[in-house]
Design goal:
Length: 509
């Protein structure tokens, strides 16, 4: 459990928690480390070189990111393969009519939304390697069950349990990654992790194309084999994940004691020299969390892009078939869309960290996606090629913005509990967009889908407005702190548990 590891270092130095707290969590130690001198004297050699920090980052990258990349790739694949199964006979075999497919798409998000916060509270108390690999194993079993159900009701039950087991994956991984890196090192790492969903989309289309030729084997239609094969693969990978997912920095077996100290010093320095902490979950802390306008604004921003993201993933194969391609060819045509999204998103993430700016990149991403929806709304007056290009624009713009929305909020929260609750609330409530996205493409409107395209455009325009509000609000708050208008908080009893409300913390736009 966090807070249980307190080894002493040579010279009487104590390893700090990443948010500036001693791992033991004792109040007297927490107050003592408010001194910036204490924070900067952590490493036993008394000096940190750039080469040393770079070597540490490479080591963390190697051990942390690849397995989480694979884990989320399988999570996303098992969540959205419904769209691939749909055009391989799912709806016909389970006798889905009317809005039954939409319900099957959206029902997953009910437990997914409700269990995000509880899951992030659990992962704070349980080793991430245990919790995340366990979730992966059980959602793999559930995915296999989707392939052998014999009724629509049974399929809905499977989708509900899939939402239960996948609820903690994205917020848990994002939370874990954020505890290893400074704010302007986070974007490219989190985006690299997030782009696994694009690889899942591309690989899902290719895999579905291959599996479509298995129809009839064992008496099963092709869509059943999609779930069975992908579920079995998930189960196998979950066993590997148990041994390879890293735990919190103070528990990490791949780091030496000095490296753990260096991780703690770097993160503490990034949080106003270790003063911006929230290591106690009491009533004042909960009030600060739930009254923080940033969390709610960031949540709605995330919801606007998840609406279009899930709508695209659930219905892209269907849209492509209605452009004239057969089901197997439609699966193949999704691959370059995700491939381009992968390259552009990583490029934008690299530049965003390099110039230490977020807002302009959200504007670029949302604008690109808006242009795509405008073209789709004018589909009667444009060629099939233009409509196909529009899907590239929607997907690329969405993938630039969606992970950026998570990182931007994470950059502007400090303290273990603030980040835990903030990430879970944003991703959990933000996934209401999955429910919206599952219902905006109305089958009777095919092949035009004006409701779907129009709603997607409206949500993205709302996202543009809220990103501007977020950017302005952060700058306004920084100016107030520069003028000393928040210094009164230094006299509050909970001064050592303010999180990013601490007057020394500065927000990033």
């Amino acid at each position: 459990m966090l807070g249980s590891w307190t080894p002493a270092f040579p010279g009487g130095e104590i390893l700090l928690h990443p948010d500036g707290q001693t791992p033991g969590g004792h109040a007297h130690c927490g107050r003592a480390i408010q001194s910036k001198k204490t924070v900067t004297s952590l490493p036993s050699d008394g000096h940190v070189t750039t080469a040393k920090e770079k070597a540490l980052l490479w080591k963390i990258d190697y051990h942390l990111i690849p397995i989480l990349f694979v884990l989320y790739m399988f999570a996303f694949l098992d969540r959205v393969n419904l769209g691939n199964a749909k055009i391989q006979g799912l709806t016909q075999d389970l006798k889905m009519t009317g809005s039954m497919y939409n319900i099957a798409s959206e029902i997953l998000f009910v437990p997914y939304i409700l269990l995000e916060v509880p899951s992030n509270l659990i992962i704070k108390r349980i080793r991430p390697s245990y919790w995340l690999s366990g979730l992966m194993f059980f959602w793999g079993v559930t995915t296999v069950c989707q392939g052998v159900v014999s009724s629509y009701g049974g399929y809905i039950v499977c989708r509900v349990f899939l939402g239960v087991f996948e609820a903690g994956v994205f917020p848990g991984c994002a939370y874990l990654i954020s505890m290893y890196y400074k704010r302007f090192e986070l974007q490219k790492r989190l985006v690299l992790f997030f782009t696994s969903s694009m690889l899942a989309g591309a690989f899902g289309g290719l895999l579905a194309y291959a599996i479509s030729h298995m129809a009839g084997i064992g008496g099963y239609n092709g869509w059943r084999w999609i779930f069975i094969i992908e579920g079995l693969a998930t189960i196998v990978v979950s066993v590997v994940a148990f041994f390879t997912i890293v735990d919190w920095p103070e528990q990490a077996r791949f780091l030496s004691d000095d490296e753990k100290a260096l991780v703690a010093r770097r993160i503490a320095a990034d949080n106003a020299g270790g003063t911006a902490r929230m290591d106690k979950l009491d009533r004042p802390a909960l009030k600060r969390i739930f009254s923080d306008w940033k969390i709610w604004c960031g949540t709605v921003i995330y919801m606007t892009v998840t609406t279009t993201g899930y709508a695209t993933n659930f219905f892209m194969p269907t849209i492509l078939t209605q452009m004239g391609w057969l089901a197997a060819d439609a699966q193949l045509h999704t691959i370059p869309i995700y491939g381009v999204g992968f390259v552009v998103t990583l490029t934008c993430a690299w530049w965003s960290d390099r110039i230490q700016h977020r807002y302009a990149f959200t504007v670029v991403g949302l604008t690109i996606a808006c242009i795509g929806y405008v073209v789709l709304l004018c589909e009667d007056r444009v060629s099939v090629g233009a409509r196909y290009t529009a899907l590239f624009l929607v997907n690329v713009g969405n993938y630039i913005t969606q992970p950026l929305a998570v990182v931007w909020l994470a950059n502007n929260m400090a303290g273990h509990y603030k980040r835990s609750f903030g990430a879970a609330l944003q991703i959990g409530i933000g996934n209401v967009g999955g429910i919206i996205g599952s219902n905006i493409f109305i089958l009777k409107e095919a092949p035009h889908y004006h409701t779907g395209y129009g709603t997607g455009l409206g949500m993205l325009l709302l996202g543009l407005v809220l990103c501007t509000v977020f950017w302005y609000g952060l700058g306004w708050e920084n100016k107030k702190r520069d003028r000393g208008e928040r210094d009164y908080r230094l006299a509050l009893p909970e001064v050592d548990n303010l999180g990013d409300d601490h007057p020394e913390f500065r927000y990033n736009s």
